[in-house]
Amino acid sequence: MLRILNISMPMKTLDTPRLTIRPLTEADAAFMLRLLNDASWLHYIGDRGVRTLEDAKHYILKGPVEMYGRLGFGFCAVELKASGEAPDELIGICGLAQRDYLDDPDIGFAFLPQFCGQGYAFESASAVLRFAQQDLGLSRVLATTRHYNQASQGLLEKLGLRCLREIDHPDGDRKLLLYGIEWS
What we know:
- The chain is α+β, with helices and mostly antiparallel strands.
- The protein has helices at 29-36, 39-44, 53-71, 120-135, 150-158; strands at residues 14-15, 19-23, 75-80, 89-97, 106-111, 140-145, 162-168, 175-182.
- The protein has a 5-stranded antiparallel sheet. It has a 3-stranded antiparallel sheet with strand order 6-8-7.
- Strand 7 (162-168) and strand 8 (175-182) form a beta hairpin.
- Helix 1 packs across helix 3.
- The longest helix has 19 residues, at 53-71.
- The radius of gyration is 16 Å and the shape is globular.
- The two termini are 19 Å apart.
């Protein structure tokens, strides 16, 4: 049974010691174009057909921004906080989405390759899970990953999610592993 939340609060910015997790805006289109066409995104997540800055703006507005307004959550920009003279640097995305084929919101994350393996995904996903439980009052969060994405599986398990079962992706071309975490 699909549970659609009706959250009246806007998506808020989350802070961790090293990161700022904030709502995506049209100004992030160039970054999203780069991320969505990175080889690791294409391999592990899939081709979204975003090829131009206009495509990227549309992707942001019709995906995350629309979801913020409707549900109070969505995928967010993850920025590395400034150090010294360097400005904040956009390094990836992390957040929640409500997919038509899942009963509960699911957590997702993606980072440019040069920022993988440094704990940023764990740090941002931990903050998003706290937001899901404490601010949104969710009792369960799901996640999906492809069988061959051992890095994501390891991160999900480190976050406390457990593999529940294998599911068919709704496009019918692949199987996914479904993970979940529940809070009382």
